[in-house]
Amino acid sequence: MPEPTMTLHDPHAEFDEVGETSLDHVVTELITGLGEDVTREGLLKTPQRVERSLRFLTSGYETSVDDVLNGALFDAEGSEMVVVKGIEFYSLCEHHMLPFFGTAHIAYIPGSKILGLSKFARVVDVFARRMQVQERMTLQIADALEKALEPRGLAVVTEASHLCMMMRGVEKQGSTTRTSAMRGAFKDDARTRQEFLEALR
Ligand code: ZN
Fold it and tell me: What spacing in Å lies between the alpha carbon of 23 and ligand 1's midpoint?
């Protein structure tokens, strides 16, 4: 293993402009610990790139559902089921910090409010762009939408592939994990739930 070629700083000594501790020295230490030479050309800027990348992939910590929904709630004119299918998401599993990614499907039966359709993807991102487990992410999306919309029913289904399983060969490659949260009419009424699940086929 090569000797570390950079002095590691006190992690509390450096802050970037948003007041967070800088992570590039931590990434440098990680790369060195893995047996790599951080001074070779291809790796020179990697610590900074990894930090920027991780800040983006965890930017859900800096966004709130209230900000996302601000101004996007409207009076409902009907009570038909609304289904938003195939919302792409990318998240990081909190056990390995490896991506899991897939699609979210959301349905609701409005109470007095509806939400602009583009906002569902933004709500998903608030919770996907964190260190997560898929089950909790699904519940958090459902909780946030239930609180904001006060719908007669709400359903969230997520389907994801987990690189920590695929790359490490723990489970069959190509397997996907599905988790769901059913509220109100989707929980109580099997026909409503069935209508939604059939819409996902
Ligand atoms: Zn994992």
Answer: 22
pLDDT score of 27: 96
Give the amino acid at 77.
Answer: E
Kindly report the pTM of this predicted structure: 0.86
- With CA atoms as reference, report the closest residue to 167 among 101, 98, 103, 102: 98
Q: How far is the CA of 136 from the centre of ligand 1 (A)?
A: 14
Among 44, 63, 82, the domain-final residue is: 63
Q: Are strands 131-132 and 82-93 parallel, antiparallel or unpaired?
A: parallel
Q: Give the Å distance between the CA of 16 and the centre of ligand 1.
A: 29
| pLDDT tens, residue by residue, 78-118 | 889 999 999 999 999 999 999 999 999 999 999 999 999 99
Residues in the 5 Å CB sphere of ion ligand 1: 93, 95-96, 164
* Host domain of residue 31: 1-63
Ligand 1 centroid distance, CA of 108 (Å): 30
83 φ, ψ (degrees, to nearest 5): -120, 125
Same domain as 169, residue 76: yes
Residues 16 and 94 in one domain: no
Position 78 scores a pLDDT of 86
